[in-house]
Amino acid sequence: MSRTFPPLREELRGIEPYGAPQLSLEQAPVQLNVNENPYGPSPEAAADIARAVGEAAVSLNRYPDREFVELRDALTAYLNTSGGTGITPDMVWAANGSNEVMLQLLQAFGGPGRVALSFAPTYSMYPEYARDTSTQWVVGHRAEDFSLDLDAARAMVLERKPSVVLLPSPNNPTGTALPPEAVAMLCEAAASYEPGGIVVVDEAYGEFRRAGTPSALEMLGAHRNLVVTRTMSKAFALAGARLGYLAADPAICDAIRVVRLPYHLSAVTQATALAALRHAPELLGRVDDLRVERDATVVWLREQGLEVADSDANFVLFGRFADRHATWQGLVDQGVLIRETGPDGWLRVSIGTAEEMAAFRQALTHVTKEQA
Ligand SMILES: *Cc1c(COP(=O)(O)O)cnc(C)c1O
């Protein structure tokens, strides 16, 4: 037998799979680490989803609708009520989570000899999509307050000529949203060389944005190379169903069809997402509560003398801690699991229910006193 087994690609050897540390509910009853919506579907919504899945089950001997026509129509209607105007079904594409959508974008538009660009701190999965598609990963940096220096960002795009620019807005892990000028400027820059690049604005947290923060969906008509991705995992409280989607020029959606696996969206997934979309007002009904809780968390953390990034998302990045791991561990010991992520010294807490946030505040007060 060869000494290297399994005969893995060189660049994958010794790499740990991505994933936040998972603890059981007994170890940490308050779980505020992966930006889930703490409010599950109501019994009525759950029953409707179960009924829809039951109906789909009768014909599971058949492959699902490869083009998920009905789901595309429903997602289109939703997007036109959620910041978009004039979006048509041929501008919408969906897959198993927006993670799969973005991997498909890299498969279609990245690849050997091509560059994917983002600005750190940014979503930790992006470099993995780049690696998995043999796309060169190039990362610029955000300013001290996590905003984007527009001139520097534009210069970097013009110099590196990326095929794909990845911009989470609101950003994970900082929570900060990009101004429309930034999106417009980078779309124009990425359209100014041959063959040009696409600009992906990842709005996984789009529904949580504060009043006055626009969605990049509004700009689709103005920029052919703009792609806006969304997910049902966060505001829609449907992380377990795995449904992400995008809106873009029809030619971009068409290109993805070349790389997608056959029948990638199962009949069960399509039925689940369709039923969930019928309950959209209810599933999204807690978003306002979570935004209020988020804003209160920002205020409280600042009152504790901590630095806090402005947040348009359902989580808050705060710091700085001389030993953030000790603070994280101290919170775990109090039964509160948050996320050790972002620049050194910072921690990220997802917004939970009012009770969970009270437990977080109490635990952090305790840990800070103990470590003082
Ligand atoms: C959570 C998250 C997603 C969504 O992932 P899904 O695969 O749709 O669950 C996408 N982008 C960012 C930045 C996220 O934080």
UniProtKB/TrEMBL annotation:
Matching Pfam families: Aminotran_1_2
PROSITE patterns named among the record's database cross-references: AA_TRANSFER_CLASS_2
Catalyzed reactions: L-histidinol phosphate + 2-oxoglutarate = 3-(imidazol-4-yl)-2-oxopropyl phosphate + L-glutamate
Cofactor(s), by name: pyridoxal 5'-phosphate
Pathway(s) of this molecule: Amino-acid biosynthesis; L-histidine biosynthesis; L-histidine from 5-phospho-alpha-D-ribose 1-diphosphate: step 7/9
All residue ranges annotated as the Aminotransferase class I/classII large domain in the record: 30-363
Entry EC number(s): 2.6.1.9
UniProtKB keywords: Amino-acid biosynthesis, Aminotransferase, Histidine biosynthesis, Pyridoxal phosphate, Transferase
N6-(pyridoxal phosphate)lysine found at: K234
Record flagged with keyword 4Fe-4S: no
GO molecular function: histidinol-phosphate transaminase activity; pyridoxal phosphate binding
GO BP of this protein: L-histidine biosynthetic process
NCBIfam families xrefs: hisC (TIGR01141), PRK03317.1 (NF002877)
Alphabetical list of PANTHER family matching this protein: HISTIDINOL-PHOSPHATE AMINOTRANSFERASE (PTHR42885:SF2), HISTIDINOL-PHOSPHATE AMINOTRANSFERASE-RELATED (PTHR42885)
Family per record: Belongs to the class-II pyridoxal-phosphate-dependent aminotransferase family. Histidinol-phosphate aminotransferase subfamily.
Subunit structure of this chain's protein: Homodimer.
Protein name according to UniProt: Histidinol-phosphate aminotransferase
Organism of derivation: Nocardioides alpinus
